[in-house]
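Hi there,

I know you've been waiting on this one. I reran it after we fixed the sequence typo, so this is the corrected version. Both the input and the resulting structure follow.
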Amino acid sequence: MPSEGVLMGNAFSILVSTDGGATTDAALHGKGFTLTFDGKEINISNMDSGRWEDFLMGRGNWAFSYNGLLRIDAVTDKLNTDDLMLLFVNKTKFQIQFTTNVTGDKYWSGEAFIKGGSIDFQDDTEGTTSFDGRGTGELAINTVT
C-alpha cells in the first residue's frame, strides 16, 4: 500500500548503482539529502505581450546534495565515504534513486556525477561528509513495484 500523509526524512533511501542498475547500494549513515530541479526560461515576449513577460520552458536540470557521517570500512552492500569519493575521483557516471521502497510510492531516478564535496572532522565530534552531484539527462518519475 502506498505511503500517505507527510513523510519523515528517514522514510527515504538513496540508492546508487554503477553497473547499469543490476545492483544498487544504499548510502550509509546519511543525515540529510536535498534534491533540486530547475528549468530554463525562454523569453518569447513581444509587442503583443503587453506589459507582461511571456515565456516557454526550455531544458530542465537537476542536482542533489548529500550529507552524512564519515564512514570508511569494508561494508560491501552500503556506500561509504570512500565509495562516494571514488565516484568523484574516477569521474564515474552512476544511477541514483530517491525512494521510500514502499510498493505503490513514486520514486525519482536518473544518471549523475559527483561534482564535489567535503569531509569535516573536529575534536570531540563525529566526522561528517557531504557530496554534491549533478544529474545528466532526465530525472524520471517511476512507481515502486
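Quick highlight: The longest helix spans residues 81-89.

Best,
R. S.
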